[in-house]
Amino acid sequence: KPIIAFHHVNKIYANGTVGLKDINFEIPRGQFLVVVGLSGAGKSTLLRTINRMHEISSGEIRIDNEPISDYKGRALRQLRCHIGMIFQNFNLVNRASVERNVLSGLVGYYPTWKCVLGLFSAADKQRAIQALKRVSLTPKIFTRADELSGGQQQRVAIARTLMQDPKIILADEPVASLDPRTTKDVMDTLQRLNREDDITVIVNLHSVALARQYADRIIGLRAGELVYDQPIANVTTAD
Ligand code: ADP
Ligand code: ADP
């Protein structure tokens, strides 16, 4: 049974731009899916409809066989808690410690003011250490975020999403600003979480070569349309 299913999904932005056009596909639980396509193809839009950062215009998205469009309030917060998201620019609080950034992943479980004031329990801090262990960054726990390399910052962002025990991680161009070495660290981290913790991972990438190294399956978007969908064994250099 798929963890995510798109059924005739269209997204037209308020200014008339077509974001997604009649998207139909299913993502099995535990898949490492890479979305490729040129800039403006709709990759980011696709990702953001899954946690409802963007609302679709028509069609249906199901997660665990439940349509998500009716979710409100608590149900919507819970949906977003179980879907981790990371971005190209990491979105960390630069002047705060790694620990504090990771703990801020508990926003959504706690009222925001509690996170702002840093009112975290010993159990929360233990969880943060565990999350940092999973991204191999425990030695950096008390370092300021902006003193880390880009790849390390992205792994902190991943650890922050792990605080919410996500079933799905959405990664929007997570390595676009990184060099090849730190790119590998970040992609290896996502791969390990996918394989060891059975987290379904969806990554937007520019590089088809990188996609081929990590993906179970690659889908391609062009002008909002799904134009390509292949399991990795069938992807050849001719594609
Ligand atoms: P990609 O991630 O593949 O670069 P996007 O999903 O960001 O593509 O964008 C798809 C299309 O939708 C582009 O034409 C883009 O300019 C447009 N777009 C994205 N976000 C918005 C928005 N909030 N309002 C209007 N148009 C948007
Ligand atoms: P959504 O409809 O998913 O909520 P928004 O309505 O928040 O998206 O987008 C708000 C406005 O931001 C858009 O109408 C557009 O004018 C502007 N905008 C944001 N990103 C882009 C983009 N990539 N291209 C064009 N316009 C954008």
From TrEMBL:
A Gene Ontology cellular-component term: membrane
Residues making up the signal peptide according to the UniProt record: none
GO molecular function, one term: ATP hydrolysis activity
InterPro entries found in the cross-reference section: AAA+_ATPase (IPR003593), ABC_transporter-like_ATP-bd (IPR003439), ABC_transporter-like_CS (IPR017871), ABC_transpr_PhnC (IPR012693), MetN_ABC_transporter-like (IPR050086), P-loop_NTPase (IPR027417)
Entry keyword set: ATP-binding, Cell membrane, Membrane, Nucleotide-binding, Phosphonate transport, Translocase, Transport
PANTHER family, sorted: AMINO ACID IMPORT ATP-BINDING PROTEIN (PTHR43166), PHOSPHONATES IMPORT ATP-BINDING PROTEIN PHNC (PTHR43166:SF6)
Protein name listed in UniProt: Phosphate phosphonate ABC transporter ATPase
